[in-house]
């Protein structure tokens, strides 16, 4: 029987920072997922914006008894002290990103509230078109909000991701009159405090620096 389960949504943001910040963000995502696994917290990547250097931002859903404790260890500014691995002559050695808690989302809508449609996934320029109907469009009947997912190979995986993205869109919809949800997510993409970091990592191996306050 499940007891004291918690759900927390976190956003990792580089605040449109340079390549070094994106490299750091990719490490942080991996480290956070590893800590979640070690502590029995289910972690799911809801959305991710990646680039050739690493990652610009990501939204994570944490579920489990220790989800809140894990989230609190990461929330705030994070610092990476390292000479740039992509710009050797760059004088800067301090790179910052942020981890922010997002507003709670509404419960995942039940499948009875959703109309599913399947269609074929397409490749660029019409090439490599998937011959099976693996793409999924999910429409929330009451609001008319819909999402289309074709990023996964199987229809089942696309359906699962569509449900999650639909819940996120419903959260934005419910907060639409004040734009609280949308503003919170958008503004954090551009706001990272530089200084007083929650956690600090050093060097190309990302060794964590002990907290001087502890």
Brief digest:
27% of the residues lie in helices and 30% in strands. The protein is of the alpha+beta class. The strands form two sheets. Strands 2-3-1-5-4-9-10 form a seven-stranded mixed β-sheet. The protein has a three-stranded antiparallel β-sheet with strand order 6-7-8, covered by helices on one side.
Could you explain the architecture of this structure?
The protein is of the alpha+beta class. The chain has 4 helices and 10 strands. A 7-stranded mixed sheet has the order 2-3-1-5-4-9-10. The chain has a 3-stranded antiparallel sheet with strand order 6-7-8, covered by helices on one side. It starts with 5 loop residues before the first strand and ends in a 5-residue tail after the last strand. It holds the Pfam family RF-1. GO terms for molecular function: translation release factor activity. InterPro entries: Pep_chain_release_fac_I, Pep_chain_release_fac_I_sf, PrfH, Prokaryotic/Mito_RF.
What is the share of helical residues?
Answer: 25-40%
| Total individual domains | 2
CATH topology of the largest domain: Alpha-Beta Plaits
Average pLDDT level:
83
Structural class: alpha+beta
Rounded Rg:
19 Å
Work out the number of β strands: 10
Order of helix and strand elements from N to C terminus = EHEEHEEEEEHHEE
Number of contiguous helices: 4
Task: Please state the overall shape, judged from the principal axes of the Cα atoms.
Answer: globular
- Quote the beta fraction: 25-35%
CATH architecture of the largest domain: 2-Layer Sandwich
**CATH class annotation of the largest domain:** Alpha Beta
Q: What composes the largest sheet?
A: 7 strands, mixed
Low-confidence stretches: 124-130
Strand order, sheet with most strands? 2-3-1-5-4-9-10
Measured between the Cα atoms of the first and last residue, the distance is: 36 Å
Family: Belongs to the prokaryotic/mitochondrial release factor family.
GO molecular function: translation release factor activity
Organism: Morococcus cerebrosus
Protein name: Peptide chain release factor H
């Amino acid at each position: 029987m499940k007891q004291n389960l918690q759900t927390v949504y976190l956003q990792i943001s580089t605040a449109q920072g340079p390549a070094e910040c994106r490299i750091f963000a990719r490490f942080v995502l991996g480290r956070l997922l590893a800590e979640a696994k070690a502590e029995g917290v289910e972690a799911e990547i809801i959305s991710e914006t990646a680039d050739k250097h690493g990652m610009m931002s990501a939204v994570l859903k944490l579920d489990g008894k220790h989800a809140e404790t894990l989230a609190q260890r990461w929330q705030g500014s994070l610092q990476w002290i390292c000479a740039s691995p992509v710009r050797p002559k760059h004088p800067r050695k301090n790179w910052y990103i942020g981890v922010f808690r997002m507003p709670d989302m509404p419960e995942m809508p039940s499948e009875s509230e959703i109309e599913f449609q399947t269609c074929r996934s397409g490749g660029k320029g019409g090439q490599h078109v998937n011959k099976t109907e693996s793409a999924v469009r999910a429409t929330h009947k009451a609001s008319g909000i819909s999402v289309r997912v074709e990023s996964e190979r199987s229809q089942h995986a696309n359906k699962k991701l569509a449900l999650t993205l639909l819940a996120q869109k419903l959260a934005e919809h419910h907060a639409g009159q004040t734009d609280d949800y949308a503003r919170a997510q958008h503004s954090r993409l551009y706001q990272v405090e530089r200084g007083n970091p929650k956690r600090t990592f050093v060097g190309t191996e990302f060794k964590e620096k002990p907290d001087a306050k502890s």
